[in-house]
Specification:
two-stranded antiparallel ribbon; 213 residues; 8 strands
Length: 213
Amino acid sequence: MTAETSQTLDRGLRVLKLLADTDHGLTVTELSNKLGVNRTVVYRLLATLEQHALVRRDIGGRARVGLGVLRLGRQVHPLVREAALPALRALAEDIGATAHLTLVDGSEALAVAVVEPTWTDYHVAYRAGFRHPLDRGAAGRAILKARQGLIQDGGLALTHGELEAGASGAAAPLVGVSGIEGSVGVVMLADTVSERIGPRVVEAAREVSEALR
């Protein structure tokens, strides 16, 4: 902590991070131990966060992340999209295929930014807002590879025909971005993905990851 920071705000944010990392919530005692502060401080932090609907407590007294974070989360996608667009534009133009940024939304993959190449005669119509299961399509499979720590090759995932007949996809996960699970990829009308495309997709994913750090 420095003179310019707020200790109370810091503790409140740490509470939210701790609660976000658990599916079962935490008790006041557990939070007190993890934060290294007494229970009275934790009670005050939780009461303040509850007033803003950022935290809720169940009947058993366990604290969990509240629905108020959804209102904050709605503003995340536009910020992420803006940061990713330069790398997506360059990728789409270099490859001549539709480039996309996909984020995890619950149990699904959600395309939040899509850039189509300007110079090709045809390309796959892929729209922002498109959803699909994480275990189908290159974008979702790349995210799952990152979850499993399989990123030796940049986490590159290649698929064909899983989301659209005749279309192939390549995607690589975002790595080292706190609080965001996602991938960058391309989709094209082709039977296979050429060898030069994989490394370029991995490079674009790294560029987006760096922009979001």
